[in-house]
Amino acid sequence: MNKKLISAGAAGVLLLLAGCSNGGNAKAPEAAGSKDLLVTTPAPTAELDKIVWNNNFGEPPSIDPIKAADYPASGVVSNLCESLFQIQPDFSIKPHLAKSVKNTGNTTYVYELQDGVTFWDGKPMTADDVVFSLKRHLDPKEISYWASSVTANIASVEKTGPNEVTVKLKSPDATFNNNLATPVGAVVEKAQREKAGVDYGNPGSGVMCTGPYSVASWKQGVSITLDRYDGYWKTDKKAKTKQVEIQFITDPASITNALATGAVDGSYDVPLSAVGQLSKSGSGELFRGKSMQNMAIISTGTGTLGDPAVRKALTLATDREAIAQTVYEGTSTAAQSLVPNGGWAYGADVFEAARKELPATTPNLEEAKKVIKDAKVDLSKPIKIVYPIDRTFYADIISEFANAGAKLGLKIEPSGVPGAQFGAFFSDPKARAGADAFVTTNYMNVADPLIHLSAIAGPGGMQNYSGFSDPKITGLLEKARATSDDTERAKLTVEAEALIMDKEPWLPVVDSSTRLYMNKRVTGAPASFVYLYYPWAADLGGTGK
Amino acid sequence: MRFLVRRLLALGGVLIASSMIVFGALYLAPGSPEQFLVQGRTVSPEVLDAIRAQYSLDDPLPVRYWNWLSGLFTGDMGRSLLTQQDVGALLASRIPTTLSLAAYAALLIIVGGIGLGILAGTRGGVAERIVIFASNLGIAVPTFFAALVLMAVFSVGLGWFPVFGAGEGAVDRVWHLTLPALALSLPSIAVIARITRTAIVEESESEHVLIAVARGLPKRIILWRHTVRNSLLPVTTAVGMHIAGLVAGAFVVEYAFTLDGIGALLVNSVQRKDFAVVQAIALIMVIAFGVVNLLVDLLYTVIDPRVRLKKGQ
User: Fold this and answer.
1) Taking CB atoms and an 8 Å cutoff, what residues of chain B touch A425?
2) So what's the ipTM on this one?
3) pLDDT tens readout for residues A170-193
4) For chain B, what is the domain count?
5) Across the interface, do A140 and B49 touch by the CB < 8 Å criterion?
6) Which of A143, A275, B45, B153 is the most buried (most CB within 10 A)?
7) CA of A425 to nearest chain B CA: how many angstroms apart?
8) Which of A449, A453, A451, A444 is closest to A473 using CA atoms?
9) Are residues B100 and B57 in the same domain?
10) Are B57 and B129 in the same domain?
11) pTM of this structure
12) Which residues of chain A make contact with B162, given a CB cutoff of 8 A?
């Protein structure tokens, strides 16, 4: 399989491959799937002077945290700029630059800020910086890629004490603090932001943040070098490596070579084509970590596939376990839901129990034939599924769906488009016109199924590409967002999840895992999928080898 | 001199025409730049409006083109949409890489291509057959494949060369760019070797060479003055074409070897509809093409005095 990884295009479209090749017809993949995957790697025993890493998705266009909304930028910015909350390798979310939060009423959050936090220039982080940073999402001129329904729900952000900030929301949102673990809650120095003007976040002016690393140099098109910030406030989490040079190699063969020869010490999400060579390599180790990434087929809501009965029947009939075994070389698991398996930081019992109620992933043609009888559309019309032509594995997946569709009397046509054009499918409704569906490899920002499901199936959701709307689902999602008790909220969320999976706005295909490769001289980086918002480089150190 | 001025004016005309075509094509291409920027996220309409306003994306095409063109004359190439950076600064760091890569490859084409061609054309026998076979291979092997093979053998296998990067300082740079330049120049070397060989074989059968042989002139003079020099005219044309195309073709190699050149940047910028960057790089490529062609034409007059005479009339 020959595929090119162009730096992740729209919505983190990238093939990911799951760990745990347990095989078999696991009907409840979570039993093996999510629990065998790693969260961390062995802790370092030595400090190192320098580590060379690779950002497989390429160069960040900007390191302004509010413009870091995709793999290339987030994977770097996560080491530089910190947020009020922070996602941990086990996917839990903890207060970070906010020391504590008080929830008064359903819509008011009072944040007490951490003491002794300084920016890289030594100046202390103040409540004014925090207010300014949060308000950047509300100022269209700042062009925040994180300005969405979450930030639009903010009624006010105010300094209410020397070390205290109060946020008032327009309507209750129990997921708000979890969102603050993403760049929505990132804090930057106000004075430097204002001074930098239009050059903010680019190689000329950079940013001023509080993270464990600061930018030492940025050689455009080549690499960005990070230096440890010795004044880092969280002394027990001070970086163990003095300098980390992050390369921007995107060609899969070059990445493989750089890792195999030791020219680069490590990388997240190594190319699928590299797995064979690297897992046998004597120069390092390939780790498979718990992930929040999955692969799905998104219905545009039109054509034959616009009918929920057709979507459901097609998923039922397709052997997605075979896709996991063959296309993904046995390293991912068939997906039961659009919420990646294990992608929750609260209500684990509830979410895990709900998996048993969701339809199994074993193909069931008889049932599919029954379901498709409910379809109200003309089944003879071909279903056009679009994929980026440079990633041939998508064609293999679609052909598996086409085989299953044929048994149901459906005609499925794969349609390859150039990578750049494909990106537009995620952003431009005009580009989607004429297509029935398109593929995606997606990820959750934080392990909160409610945020993820709201984005996919909520009205105005960030990833609701078909205008999907169901009053019952919307009601449940809203009610869940207004529920502050974790277990109760989880129960409402799985209720919504079951209804969503009955309609399948997206067809779930497989759940992935994070592939982390590290040379034997380095260790410590989290194995799980947190490198977009967690300072992974600060955990890296030497093995003494 | 008048010839030079005329050619430079013509180059200016080509530049304006090509910049209009590139700008127009990019304008008509599907997708809107602000949508590429937000990576498919559903951001608020106010933010999209702010992006459109900041980069004047709502102005009609002629107005935008004119703004860009007039900015160019004041030395302002605009700002990159993607990196919010001054295009001049963005390119300044990348042009040296592509230029040194192209120059290195050009050197290999001239020395390797012409050298092998002369060898095959004059020696005959085994040498000739080997060169013909190798050039067939060279023409058939695509650049990206050559890059992969070279990397696998010399970087990963033998460890003689680095696997990525363009290097710093003269020596380091030559070391880093050897494999990329070789991969880039390989097809051209093959073509030039064949053309040179054919030209030499033809020339050595021409009347003036036969007469020189009959007159008993020394072999060396026959070879270099009568055969090689006369056969260089078609070769120069071909070499010029190939060298001029190097800058444009460099992106494949830049991508494979992770070099920070303008070719890789161009591909990325076209995909994101980053107008200012695409325009600037397109101009650089047209200029490179024009200048190399001009140099080739000037070279004709050195190689063949008859060309010079014609121009003088």
Assistant:
1) 40
2) 0.75
3) 998 888 999 999 999 999 999 999
4) 2
5) yes
6) A143
7) 8
8) A453
9) no
10) no
11) 0.81
12) 263
